[in-house]
Amino acid sequence: MTSVRQSRVRQTASDSPRPPRKIPGEEGIWVFVLGDMTVFALFFATFMYSRGKNRALFARDHADLHVALGTINTVLLLSSSLLVVLAVQRVLSGRREGAARLIAGALGCGAGFVGVKAIEWTQLFAAHKGVGSGEFYSYYFMFTGIHLLHVLIGMAFLSRLIIVIRKAEFGEKQARLCETGGIFWHMVDLLWVVLFALFYLVR
Fold this sequence. Notes:
The chain is an all-alpha fold.
């Protein structure tokens, strides 16, 4: 008799409607991400088309880039994304202890990225490599400049999250804000990985 009741309970639980799956973060961030990725995809396609027509010129200018600095920046952003993932997981599981420190670590990695990029640009400018130095560097400074702007916006977002996480009042709205910030930062990371491959690795 007991087993029959248990089976009925399980059947009733399985027949009950399940709550709809929640989209991570604010819905508007996905519209922004898809739009931003579409624009960058057009940029990338334009770059590859121009490169196909001027392979020798692009290969010559590509040799002047500092692959080591680009690699350092890639490691910094990948590390920052990992820290953001860990922080958001803590927030969503109700354990905010340490989440602000993880976000601060990601913010530090972002600051390191900006510092390394400043060093790289300074060296290129000293070598008289700028926007007007050819088609390759026009694309390089335009793409990396727009991406750098995304990094700065993302850092401002991360700074806001640190304040939000440390507040005593914390609910579902604040948790979704943390998810939204994480989504934006992962997009910034993904865009850089593609830029790194296009400008530093493709020969």
